[in-house]
Amino acid sequence: MKVLLLSAEVEPFAKTGGLADVAASLPQALRDLGHEVAIMMPGYRRALYAGRPVRETGVRVRVPIAHRSLEGRILVSSLPGCDVPVYLVDYAPYFDRSGIYGAEGVDYPDNCERFVFFQRAALEGIRMLDFQPEILHCNDWQTGLVPVYLDEVYRPLPGSVFRQVGTVVTIHNLAYQGSFWHLDMPLTGFDWSLFTPDRLEAYGRLNFLKAGLVYADQISTVSPTYAREIQALEGGRGLDGLLRARKADLHGIVNGIDVTIWNPAIDPHLTARYTVKTWPAGKAANKTHLQRLAGLPDRPDVPLMAAISRLDPQKGWDLVVDAAAELLRRDLQIVILGTGEPGYERTLQQLAKEHPENLCVFLEFSQPLAHQLEAAADLLLMPSLYEPCGLNQLYSLAYGTVPVVRSTGGLADTVVNATPETLQNHSATGVSFTEPTAKALIRAVDRALELYADSDTWPRLVATGMNTDWTWHRSAEQYVRLYERVRHQRLAEHPA
Ligand code: ADP
Predict the structure, then answer these.
(1) Of 84, 103, 4, nearest to 44 (Cα)?
(2) In a designed cystine with 23, which of 10, 63, 212, 251 is the match (CB 3.0 to 4.6 A)?
(3) Tell me: the pLDDT tens digits for 453-471?
């Protein structure tokens, strides 16, 4: 299979969230399965200076934007540690800027044309590159128009190389749709006749993601439960009707974790490395180290609960703030690592000042600390209001840290709630709760603390989690099946 993955973020070139991790890990896993894969992304300043070698391909592309014709070029780099090519669509006026989508929290006003340019330039570039994909795997709104350009512009061209090329659109977070005012429509070059609710329009605006969901051959999102939730009014963000209409083509594939980075047996950030056989001693050493670092009492037996995430309402911080005073009455240490909304930062800082004995808050973005916390903690708290997939709970499972999660999206699909039945059949890996309330959160933490105190049950819970397979290999095989489905679909529509 020949697959080109299009993404606005790819680690280590440019990252604001989980999309960048997926866009780097999935292609490697596909290649390990024997497929031919390349990546295409915008040539942002930070991507060109990410420390990876970047070369010219010699390919120049001309892209119409409204009445102008702009010339960009395609550069090429590669993922570290493997030779998956990363094509960079370069046009300095759009991408030689400090930010990816904006600066100082404000989106660039020309994001519509920046990403129209990226998508058209990508398709123009593909026509001239050595690599001829069978599948274009688009990700999120920044690539949502690609299936539209294919159908409306590129496939109908005489002798088109795109005749049998199929598309997958993956939704990483439905909250971000690339919705622009209607007068941006001419930037796309599409006829106004496409500006209808069954095509590119959503609620009077031009909507890139919606357009992709209408035109894609197949659609996926990053967990089966999220795939169901976005078909309901409450989770659909205005697109639930469309997603229900396309439900036969909508698949949930859980993300994997990169075990070269997230593996307690080889993690260079840890004080002590450990495996499923040596975790009690390993975690104890990491815990002592973290307690000192966090200025918390050096107590090996007290349960330690971590939270690592963006300080955003999505992640359930309102529940945490409401539950904090009660939780801190328990014999429990809490360490929080996060950055984000200033309101949460101030509240958490204040709480930490009031409870120096059992709460420490790190308001920073630190990869080493994230690793150390996963290794040191007994519990991870992740009470998200919604969660397309979630990665931290997967890291926690691998690190023997029992997740306490709200049962939503990918959290529901990856954490097996401890009940008498799942404990008995040894499938339990964590504790989950459903109601988005502080009371339900506190009850869940209390249940986890009871399990922690039970010296028979706890080691089993930890070991079951550590033994679950969340490697990318598993997910990549599911994507391959999806690509095969697309290929059959296209062959049926356009026989060779
Ligand atoms: P999302 O993509 O919605 O932010 P995920 O759980 O899918 O949530 O991924 C978040 C990633 O960002 C994880 O790898 C997590 O460890 C990391 N992360 C979040 N906040 C921090 C932080 N303050 N310091 C270090 N890593 C963080």
Answers:
(1) 103
(2) 10
(3) 999 999 999 999 999 999 9
